[in-house]
Amino acid sequence: MPRPPAFAPGGAPRRLPRLRAPFARAERPALARQELQIALCVPLGGTAGIWGPSAMSSAKLAVAELNREAGIGGRGCRLLTVNAADDAPDIEATLIELVQAGDIDAIIGMHTSAVRQRILRAVGGQIPFVYTPLYEGGESTPGVFAIGETTARQLGPAIRWLGARKRPRRWFAIGNDYVWPHVSHRMARGYIAEAGGELVGEMYVPFGTTDFSEALDALRRGRADAVVLSLVGQDAIEFNRAFGAAGLSRAMFRLSCAIGENELLGIGADNAEDLYVACGYFATLDTEANLAFKERYRSHFGERAPTLNTFGQSTYEGMHFLAALLERQRRPAAGHEGLGASPLRYRSARDAAYGADGITHTPIYLARAEGNAFRVITRL
Question: Rounded CA gap, 173 and 169, in Å?
């Protein structure tokens, strides 16, 4: 199957200068123009490609809302979609060309941490980069704003809550072989010990794995009571289908921080028994902010719109975060990199706010799969 193109402009891209801002290492003379152009980096294929449709739709909704009002800093904005799949070979070259030509003013990234690291090596610090999904934490590159949930805020409280109620003694961790699962499992070892359990084994698999028989055998040999799942996208679907078909849910439960509504539909209700997810957003959240967000989303796209999930909602937040960031930067009293001492608030479906300490403050929930939907059972 041919790979998706590296980028898909909404019309022929025009040459635009960079923002004159403290993010750039070098500045160009500002030129008068009408529109900000933002690279939306989302996976258009591969293991995480299932995130793409919801992410693009949610970002487009945010752009429509911004342009209907004052845009960003009084200027309209438009998206240039860049394929950020893990197997896309030309992400770096595409972004270097766009940045050096001045064709983009900012980056919104909704992809794995492995791709984030590739982007940072290529163009990090040159223009604002808003990284939106959940991740391992610790991102401190100048000009990069990681606004998603972190492992410490998701996995730690979830393991404590489940440990106190389900009393698992033996945990096993399975993830894709890149930075987020490795860091998360290292942190999980401590959380599990604090909860009175033990991490008895770890396994890492490459993106695109379809045969999980070795992983299932390892779970049986390890006599696991609980499984930490750090698999993404289609790999999470394949593993959970195999797990359900093997009947292992009778012996152990699963905990993930990265399974959304699309993956749950792919897993199927028969394979989702005793599957828990700790996350900052679920489509079923019964909050005023989420109900309003869902109403705007359906009104804009109709009932056949892509399924809402944490990954899509994060790109919606990313666009509104960027607008709030650049608006604050324009103020004379703005602090380092456009952030003052007070939290940066922006339109969100989960009441998020970004602190001057670089930490996003948002509720974290624990949900249990029930059929083809998540039921939120507690706020962690």
Answer: 13
Between CA 94 and CA 206 the distance in angstroms is: 25
Measure the CA–CA gap between 227 and 203, rounded to whole angstroms.
Answer: 11
Most distant CA atoms of the chain, gap in Å: 66
Please state whether 301 falls in left (phi above 0), alpha (psi between -120 and 50) or beta. alpha
| H helix runs in the chain, sequence order | 52-68, 91-100, 113-123, 151-166, 179-194, 213-221, 233-245, 261-267, 288-301, 310-329
Single pTM value for the model = 0.89
Sign for the CA dihedral angle at 28, 94, 48, 209 comes to negative
CA distance 101 to 71: 23
Q: Which helix (H) or strand (E) holds 213?
A: helix 213-221
CB 205 within 8 A of CB 218: no
SS3 74: coil
Residue-wise pLDDT tens digits, 317-344: 999 999 999 988 776 554 444 555 678 8
Q: Is 76 within 8 Å of 67 (Cβ atoms)?
A: yes
Strand pairing category for 170-176 and 198-205: parallel
Q: What are the residue ranges of helices labelled H in 69-212?
A: 91-100, 113-123, 151-166, 179-194
Q: Could you report the per-residue pLDDT of 341-370, keeping only the tens digit for each?
A: 678 889 999 988 888 778 888 999 999 999
Q: In the 8-state DSSP scheme, what is residue 369? A: E
Alpha-carbon dihedral of residues 108, 113, 117, 122, nearest 10 degrees? Answer: -30
Closest by CA position to 225, among listed 183, 255, 264, 184 = 255
Contact, 111 vs 84, CB < 8 A?
A: yes
The rounded mean pLDDT for the chain is 89
* Of 351, 328, 309, 348, nearest in space to 128 by CA: 328
